[in-house]
Design a protein that fits this description.
Blueprint lengths: L8 H17 L4 E6 L2 E7 L8 E5 L2 E7 L1 H21 L7 H17 L8 E7 L8 E5 L5 E4 L2 E4 L3 H11 L6 H13 E3 L5 E3 L7 E7 L8 E4 L1 H8 L21 H4 L44
Antiparallel strand pairs: 1-2, 1-8, 2-11, 3-4, 4-5, 5-6, 6-7, 9-10, 11-12
Length: 303
Amino acid sequence: MSMPFYVSPEQLMKDRADFARKGIARGRSVVAVQFADGVLFVSENPSQALHKVSEIYDRIAFAAVGRYNEFENLRIAGVRLADMRGYSYDRRDVTGRGLANAYAQTLGTIFSSGGEKPYEVEIFVAEIGDDPSADQIYRLTYDGQVADEQGFAVMGGQADVVAAYLQERYVAGASLDEALGLAVAALGHTSNERGEPQDRVIPVEDLEVAVLDRTRAQPRKFVRLRPARLETLLGGRGPSTPAPPDPDDNAPGTGSSDAFPDDPADPTDQTSGGVSPLEDPLTGAPPVAPPPVAPPEDDSGPL
């Protein structure tokens, strides 16, 4: 009779935790920031259909990182639980703490059971009150642990690097545009393979931004910010893709000759130094005004 393979409970839990953490770290970070009028969620998400941030109930929002199919099942279960509780009792009985406790029980049961793999997800459940002191952000990990975050919170991806950036610059009571600029800059602040910090500008089209805004007149306080409004709130952030480095280690764009090098074959080049732009280099004839050119016709019609 063969002896069954034995694994200590401590080693089993450690292996399951490592498995879940690695899956979560492969995703992109999600940032939740409290500001003067509510809670802001920002994530880098190129998909326009698969959302990381969603509405649960009137004043409650849900954000997650990890495997989409797993946290989408949790989101749907949370929506059903909130709707059933609000319908059976009262809408005021649906609270973020109650949903966080329900999620914690589900994640803890799945993590401790040996019959299935643990969920590779982390979750934010946020709720806003009538004033900033009543706002709550709950963070739930893959094993069902619940943490009450204050000010800001980060999960997924290089969460430690992003959180350190926010820790140095976060100011309580900031406006929406200030909180948004800080969150986007924090998401772009990452480290390379050698552990060196590097900053990048995330395109607006790759940002998923949502807000729980207590100033809205509607009972439902959740709203998504579209790219057109994000452009207005973020203002000028520079190009989305940085310019390639100059081979001579000179900063490009510092002068007209650096940004647009001379082209001797172009008679309209205004940066040639030795000869006037329209002067004949052989005869030295004075420049002649070019004939007027009519603008091209636009045959495309109205858009």
